Amino acid sequence: MFLLGDLLARAKLGAGVKSDIKLARAIGVTQPCLSMWRMGRAWPNDTAIALLCQFSGDDAALFCVQLAAFRAPNDLTRLMWESVENSLKRVRHFDALEVVAATKKIAA
Prior knowledge:
Oligomer: single chain
Helix content: over 70%
Structural class: mainly alpha
Number of domains: 1
Shape: flat
Largest sheet: none
Distance between the termini: 43 Å
Low-confidence stretches: none
């Protein structure tokens, strides 16, 4: 589920700021813009989500897909985006270091 308020809170922690105005400055938007996001009157674009996720440590691609599902105009579109989200989660479940270690064992 897409929870923008949670992302904003984690981004504040990651950025080491306590106010929305400082977080807004850190990602290059105005405080009123960030307030609109918080109230659900506007939505961040993909670039803003990527910047927020840099601070929060969250997966920007996953959040963009979750936002698309949340904002879907109908059930069919929402289900399609949820399917993309589930596929992305399955792919990202693999641990790259485990794959490299397994590859080295096979080559040896």
